[in-house]
Automatic annotation (TrEMBL):
Residues 19-51 are annotated as: Disordered. Pfam families: zf-C3HC4_3 (PF13920). This is RING-type domain-containing protein. Keywords: Metal-binding, Zinc, Zinc-finger. Residues 57-92 form the RING-type domain. Residues 29-39 have a biased composition (Acidic residues). One of its GO terms (molecular function) is ubiquitin-protein transferase activity.
């Protein structure tokens, strides 16, 4: 495990830290929604639905997300849309590089 001492964050986590980044506010809201769903009766169905929507491209909303943006490490775009983006669609940080994630 690699720890970034200046921000107290593991290397595998996104570099977007603090509440000033939009992606962290969204993640906090999603966690709150997840807690509310867990108290409901059909949390398994909503959890499955949520997992499938998380993997959809944030630009076209039709293809699977398979591109990881660097340096923020958000998995949020398909190959087709990535070519037209200069910044991450989630946190709007400038794109320095991308990696194709092969998920099975």
């Amino acid at each position: 495990r690699c720890l970034n001492s200046s921000i107290g964050m593991e290397d595998a986590e996104s570099c977007c830290y603090g509440d000033e980044y939009p992606c962290n506010r969204e993640n906090k809201e999603e966690e709150d929604e997840d807690e509310e769903e867990e108290t409901g009766g059909s949390s398994r169905e909503t959890g499955e639905r949520k997992r499938t929507t998380v993997m959809v491209c944030r630009v076209c909303n039709s293809r699977n997300a398979c591109i990881v943006f660097l340096p923020c490490r958000h998995l949020c775009s398909c190959k087709a849309c990535e070519a037209f983006l200069d910044s991450c669609p989630v946190c709007k940080s400038a794109k320095s590089a991308t990696i194709e994630a092969l998920i099975s």
